[in-house]
Amino acid sequence: MGGRLSENVTRLDGPQRIAGVDLARGLAVIGMFSAHLLVTGDGFAWTDASTWTAVVDGRSSILFAALAGVSIGLVTGGRRPLSGEAMTIARWRIALRAAILLVLGILLIVTGVPVYVILPAYAVLFLLALPFTVLPARTVLITAGALAVVMPFVQPMLNDLPIWRSPYAAELDAIIGWHYPFAVWIAFVLAGLGLARAGITHAATQIRMLGIGAALAALGYGVAQLPAPALDRYWWSVWTAQPHSSGLWEVIGSGGFVIAVLAACLLLCRLRVLKAITLPLRATGAMPLTAYTTQIVVWAIIAGIALGDTGDLGGFRAMDPFWPLTLGVIVACTAWALLVGRGPLEWALDRIVKRVVTAQPPR
């Protein structure tokens, strides 16, 4: 047991994992739990401590999207994109992961738990990111920036397409994760991919990320606070920083915020003592799919038994489930990471993908 424990600690702390990325994922998981289980109020304001829990609204899922891009960047070569057969294999494996995440996401939706399941959106975003995996950091980051500025102006028109007034609009919305619309959210994924290509483990890169992210957050949230002239419905949907609006200032402000958070996590984990203190969050962040899925499954079981309705959000929140469920998941993930190793769903997904897409790419 001692040998296994030592091996697993080494795995979490060793060069095969980036501690700051795991910490950021852990924070994103807890942020999603908070957004699901807490009543976070109408808006976040730095000057009002009672609103601070609202910081998780929208930003947690955007952090997840950016970290998805980082993961794609790392598995396709890090600073130097893979080439030839190696890139082909990596891309097929990412595509298969997307398909499995879509199926798992649909199964979680079927539980009836009243959350916008992010996994179908993940699946679509993974596929959209594939053409960009061969590009260098500069090109990917410029593309991410261009999409971040342009697509908020396009999104309201996409939301008004006739298909969203069809009888199957709700089902389509769930299956493609339109609460996290890929037309806008691909910018966050590409930002993460570009950062992985830029050398995310280098201190200089991390410091630049912190400065640029903070500046973008200040710009986006600052402009959104300025008095605005009378605007029609289209311009209101563009000129906003409201969570999940996909408005211009949300994309810039929240995009900058998550880049700064990721940078802060990377810099903090350079300090040995903080790296040790954050081990439970890092362990949770090392198995985000397991943690996220567990939350929804446990929610469905408890609500189904206690309330007779998995969709009763008010009834479930009235049970004050946040701390028991959150601490339970953190403790369980930490124990599993130390005593067993890789998260069960992460292990299963990796085994399936590598068994199906072997060293010889599909023809």
Automatic annotation (TrEMBL):
Give one Pfam hit by family name: HGSNAT_cat
UniProt superkingdom: Bacteria
Keywords of this protein's UniProt record, alphabetized? Membrane, Transmembrane, Transmembrane helix
Name of this chain's protein: Putative membrane protein YeiB
Quote the InterPro entries the UniProt record gives: Bact_Transport_Assoc, HGSNAT_cat
Which intervals hold domain Heparan-alpha-glucosaminide N-acetyltransferase catalytic? Answer: 17-210
Taking the record's annotation, the residue ranges forming a coiled coil are: none
- Parts of the chain that traverse the membrane: 21-41, 61-82, 94-111, 117-135, 140-158, 178-198, 210-228, 248-269, 289-307, 322-341
